[in-house]
Amino acid sequence: MKRILLILAVLATWQQWDRIEPMLFGNNQQVAGKGEVILYATSWCGYCAKTREFLDERGIAYTERDIETSTDARRAYDALGGRGVPVLKVNGTVIHGYDPQGILAAY
């Protein structure tokens, strides 16, 4: 029984690490960078919400374009090879999905 609880605790910690890490080590991961960040997203997407939260926590300015309400945003999303949301264009680099390390590397 103790092993099962330990395994569940480790899995829960791993799954929520992006929220736990700032509590343990402080939220000093502000990113000093320049450039254009465009987030192609929808209002209902959970990973889009996580991406918004990630960008906000690090002080990264971004422009959000909702692909369901804007035909221009949808065309741009399709041109980037959008297959799902979120899709980010960070300084010319296209990132598909929620990818914190990819965002930081491109920024």
Automatic annotation (TrEMBL):
Pfam families: Glutaredoxin (PF00462). Residues 37-95 form the Glutaredoxin domain. InterPro entries: Glutaredoxin, Grx-like_ET, Thioredoxin-like_sf. PANTHER family: GLUTAREDOXIN, GLUTAREDOXIN-LIKE PROTEIN NRDH. This is Glutaredoxin family protein. It comes from Phytopseudomonas seleniipraecipitans.
